[in-house]
Amino acid sequence: MNPPRATLRRTIALPPDYRLCDVLAFHRRDTESVAEQVRQDGLRKGVMLDGVPVLLAVDFTPAAALCTAELDGKPAPALERRADAAFHSILGLRIDPAPFCAFAAADPLFGPLVQRQPGLRIVQSATVFEALTWAIIGQQINLSFAIALRRTFIQQAGRPHSCGLWCYPEASDAARLELDELTTRKFSRAKAETLLRFAHLVSSGELDLEPGPGNTIEQIGKKLLAVKGIGPWTVNYGLLRGYGYPDCSLHGDVAVRTALQRLAGDEARPDMVRAEQILQQYQPHRTMAAAHLWASLAPPDDTA
């Protein structure tokens, strides 16, 4: 017997300076396309939401994103809200770049960057759990290896959608994994343990990732730091990609510090203490500062 299926449709208006190329590039990272498929005018992404495999499909027009969520299950109000949130995240619509652009317009360091990169946005992951597990997976390894490990994680813990794409797992899916299901597939023991520890904490409800009056994003960040194996870089990157938190300090990020070195014309890359001091000047917009620093390292054609 075929499971129930449902389709949700939304149209989301896009700002006039929307940089579609940035959004597509972010979702095109895995060239094997196990959970995401990207074309010139659209994208498709599989993700688990409330225990249901969901395909998030977006077709772009010059002024809008035509969004369709294909559910391998019954719709429910909470699930619909999660799908709506996921669309806004994967489209990079959580942080308005205009306040930082105005803030930094006359700044000697960031003013020229803002002029060269108008409309630059931060794209989020579809869920907070995806963002934080991606941050854990990517700790202290190069990007290509991190993407390969992410692919393994999806195929070990996720589930296929009826369309054939794999769906990024939820905490309850990942918590069912055994350690050797990761360590025998090129995960270090420490990384696998941290990933599963985090999944168990979230799945059990001990670590609540849902922001609210008694559980602010700042409080969530402090709780994350208390988890063995999760450090400041992972927390800040996870908050940036998961919540679109506007004031994440990425002073521990090597690329951010390399960009600061190049912009200042210094012979040496600033250490983390110095980088933190520099970035503090851009509170409460440090997330967008990091975005512009990352983009400054890309070839000109990639930041257009």
Structure description:
It is built from 14 helices and 7 strands. The protein is an alpha+beta fold. Strand 3 (about 40-50) and strand 4 form a beta hairpin. The N and C termini lie far apart (about 50 Å). The chain is globular and about 60 Å long. The model has no long low-confidence stretch (mean pLDDT about 95).
Strand and helix map with partners:
Blueprint: E1 6-13, H1 20-27, E2 36-39, E3 42-49, E4 52-60, E5 64-71, H2 77-90, H3 98-104, H4 111-116, H5 128-138, H6 143-157, E6 159-160, E7 166-167, H7 171-174, H8 180-183, H9 189-204, H10 217-225, H11 232-243, H12 254-264, H13 272-280, H14 286-296
Antiparallel strand pairs: 1-5, 2-3, 3-4, 4-5, 6-7
Order of helices and strands: EHEEEEHHHHHEEHHHHHHHH
Total beta strand runs = 7
Overall outline: globular
Give the biggest sheet: 5 strands, antiparallel
Class by SSE composition: alpha+beta
Low-confidence stretches: none
Question: Termini, distance in Å?
Answer: 49 Å
Instruction: Provide the residue-averaged pLDDT.
Output: 95
| Secondary structure tally, helices | 14
Overall radius of gyration: 19 Å
Strand content: 5-15%
Report the helical percentage.
40-55%
Order the strands across the largest sheet as they lie in space: 1-5-4-3-2
